[in-house]
């Protein structure tokens, strides 16, 4: 088997892949996030109150998780799940909302690095949905039978948990270093398409790790890459396969840097984490080569890293920081600290505001679910 993960390029690639461009809220200062959450909760009475109240609860749990308070994050997820569970059967339109807080538990574990436990939870949820039974998670029973009053409730729950098992499950196995199983799961759940999404990326890396570099490279070359981000990932994986085969990567350095720079020129802050990670991996893979675009990419990465606290965190842990001035490193550290990431606590005043907002959203959620439940009962009685 080929030995991977022995230098920064391999370590970062295996830690961050599968790497797919998906929008995510930017890492703002914690004070701004709590204030925005309060403003969102205040708008729950303006159309779609159920959706907005659930969104507030989910975002509050994410804030707690980001601040290094996993117990609080899990508690908020369970509190929201209980509200939905007590209001069953729910209308069909609430099926996905009801499942979100439970699916957020393994997602939190993936972020915290516990891919094994995350995958076990996702498997248990899908099995419960498939067999119309309950899953036992952290000592709590989660029933996935008759969640809604819809006639196709079983199929809906099965589809939702299957989707999560495919996307989040592959990421969980990858996070645990179980690349072969990640590839097997993607194949078993029809998740290896032609585009370079989670399943195909996991399959490429599993083959490369097993020493099947020619097969891995062929899979990369045969991929459909209609978007710039996929072209960047394709080039990264192509160079990775060449490195694992002990082949010359020189001819691929120019396209590697070019596709990474194309990403860095995009202004969308919601994809900054993805673009910066792809750029840093490209920089790692180009190390040791002499190309004028290496410095251009380095400067582009440094310029973009101050706009997002998640990116700031990645950069501070990457050797890119060695190319920064003392002032730049200090500014980056300030961005990271202001967001409260991994702090282990939330300042008392902000914690009070956060929990007050959560309680308001939970009250709104409880009221909405009560009205929906009565409507569901009436519909069932007259059908």
Write structural notes for this entry.
Helix 1 packs antiparallel against helix 13 and helix 11 (228-244) runs parallel beside helix 13. The protein is 68% helix and 2% strand. With 383 residues, it is mostly helical. Strand 1 and strand 2 (140-143) form a beta hairpin. The chain has a domain at 1-20 and 196-342: Serine Threonine Protein Phosphatase 5, Tetratricopeptide repeat (Alpha Horseshoe). A two-stranded antiparallel sheet has the order 1-2. It contains 17 helices and 2 strands.
Notable traits:
383 residues; mainly alpha; two-stranded antiparallel ribbon; 17 helices; 2 strands; 2% strand; globular; disordered N terminus
Average pLDDT over all residues: 93
Helix content range of the residues, please?
55-70%
Strand order of the largest sheet: 1-2
Low-pLDDT sequence parts: 1-5
Helix/strand-derived category reads: mainly alpha
Q: Assign the CATH class of one domain.
A: Mainly Alpha
Distance between the termini: 62 Å
CATH architecture of one domain, by name, is Alpha Horseshoe
Shape: globular
Rg computed from alpha carbons, rounded to a whole number of angstroms:
22 Å
Strand content: under 5%
**How many DSSP helices?**
17
Main β sheet profile: 2 strands, antiparallel
Q: Helix and strand succession? A: HHHHHHEEHHHHHHHHHHH
Q: Per CATH, what is the topology of one domain?
A: Serine Threonine Protein Phosphatase 5, Tetratricopeptide repeat
Number of strands: 2
Give me the secondary-structure topology.
Layout lengths: L7 H9 L13 H13 L6 H18 L3 H17 L8 H17 L3 H17 L2 E4 L2 E4 L9 H23 L3 H10 L9 H12 L3 H9 L6 H17 L5 H15 L7 H14 L6 H13 L4 H8 L9 H13 L9 H35 L1
Antiparallel strand pairs: 1-2
Helix pairs in contact: 1-13, 2-3, 2-17, 3-4, 3-5, 3-17, 4-5, 5-6, 5-7, 6-7, 7-8, 8-9, 9-10, 9-11, 10-11, 11-12, 11-13, 12-13, 12-14, 13-14, 13-15, 15-16
């Amino acid at each position: 088997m080929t030995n991977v993960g022995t230098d920064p390029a391999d370590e970062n690639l295996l830690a961050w892949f599968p790497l797919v461009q998906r929008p995510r809220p930017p890492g703002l200062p914690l004070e701004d996030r709590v204030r925005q959450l309060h403003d969102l909760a205040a708008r729950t009475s303006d159309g779609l109150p159920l959706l907005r109240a659930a969104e507030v609860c989910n975002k509050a749990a994410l804030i707690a998780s980001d601040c290094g308070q996993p117990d609080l994050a899990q508690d908020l997820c369970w509190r929201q799940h209980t509200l939905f569970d007590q209001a069953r059967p729910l209308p069909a339109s609430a099926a996905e909302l009801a499942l979100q807080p439970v699916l957020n538990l393994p997602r939190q574990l993936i972020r915290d690095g516990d891919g094994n436990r995350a995958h076990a939870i996702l498997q248990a949820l899908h099995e419960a949905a498939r067999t119309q039974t309950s899953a036992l998670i952290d000592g709590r029973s989660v029933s996935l039978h008759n969640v809604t009053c819809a006639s196709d409730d079983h199929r809906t729950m099965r589809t939702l948990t299957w989707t999560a098992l495919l996307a989040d499950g592959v990421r969980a196995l990858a996070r645990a270093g179980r690349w072969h199983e990640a590839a097997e799961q993607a194949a078993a759940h029809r998740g290896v398409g032609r585009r370079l999404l989670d399943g195909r990326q996991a399959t490429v890396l599993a083959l490369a790790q097993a020493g099947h570099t020619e097969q891995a490279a062929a899979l990369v070359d045969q991929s459909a890459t209609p978007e710039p981000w996929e072209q960047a990932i394709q080039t990264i994986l192509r160079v990775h396969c060449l490195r694992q085969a002990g082949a010359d990567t020189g001819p691929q350095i120019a396209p590697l840097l070019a596709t990474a720079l194309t990403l860095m020129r995009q202004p969308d802050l919601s994809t900054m984490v993805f673009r910066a990670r792809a750029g840093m991996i490209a920089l790692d893979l180009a190390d040791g080569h002499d190309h004028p675009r290496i410095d251009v990419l380095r400067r582009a990465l440094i310029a973009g890293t101050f706009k997002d606290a998640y990116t700031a965190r990645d950069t501070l842990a990457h050797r890119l920081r060695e190319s920064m001035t003392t002032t730049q490193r200090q500014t980056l550290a300030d961005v990271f600290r202001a967001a409260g990431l991994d702090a282990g606590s939330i300042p008392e005043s902000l914690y009070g505001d956060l929990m007050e907002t959560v309680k308001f959203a939970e009250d709104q959620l409880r009221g909405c679910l009560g009205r929906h439940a009565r409507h569901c009962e009436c519909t069932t009685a007259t059908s």
